[in-house]
Design a protein that fits this description.
Layout (H helix, E strand, L loop, with lengths): L1 E4 L3 H11 L5 H19 L5 E7 L4 E7 L5 E6 L6 H5 L6 E2 L1 E6 L6 E7 L8 E5 L2 E2 L3 H11 L5 E9 L1 H11 L4 E9 L2 E2 L5 E2 L5 H6 L3
Parallel strand pairs: 1-11, 4-5, 4-6, 4-8, 8-10, 9-10, 10-11
Antiparallel strand pairs: 2-3, 6-7, 12-13
Function: Catalyzes the conversion of uracil and 5-phospho-alpha-D-ribose 1-diphosphate (PRPP) to UMP and diphosphate.
GO cellular component, one term: cytoplasm
GO molecular function, one term: uracil phosphoribosyltransferase activity
Amino acid sequence: MRLHVADHPLVAHKLTVLRNKDTASPTFRLLVDELVTLLAYEATRDVRVEPHEVQTPVTTTVGVRIAEPRPLVVPILRAGLGMLEGMTRLLPTAEVGFLGMQRDEETLEAVTYANRLPDDLTGRHVFLLDPMLATGGTLVAAIDYVFARGARDVTAVCLLAAPEGIEVLEKAIGDRVDVQLVVAAVDERLDEKAYIVPGLGDAGDRLYGVV
């Protein structure tokens, strides 16, 4: 597994505002969208392209375009939905799937309750979106889910990660396939309730309110 921490002043600035408990939901949603677009620039560095000939106003030249099959962007519901527009802004030709997973607060295990994904992901570059990598259970389950459908090139994009979650992810993936993790920051630790410290609270609640 490859870990990339986006070390950039704008990333750090936006993340600081997100951490502030007084940042209201509308501002929080806007900043998540902007921050994910910055992370998407790093996450798509290895996206597959193919040669493409175009006619310029002066002559014919060969550039590149996103290769087929198109990448697949998969937000993990519900909090990952707040990251979707920021990701697809840089990958407008990508297809979008959905994966509904939630953490059982007693066992801390990830439970899948919905999916809208192609049955065959062979040859697809899959981008998984989940704001928080805490215990690692949800992201491991999501990666295993797309592995089972043939994906072998997976990039996970998270706002924050805890060291414990990264360790779980590394052990679960091993050297099976190429997985990249792109984050804005790696925080200190998990608390006794498995929340990231210092973190930014429950990303889903701060995006959409408590429902």
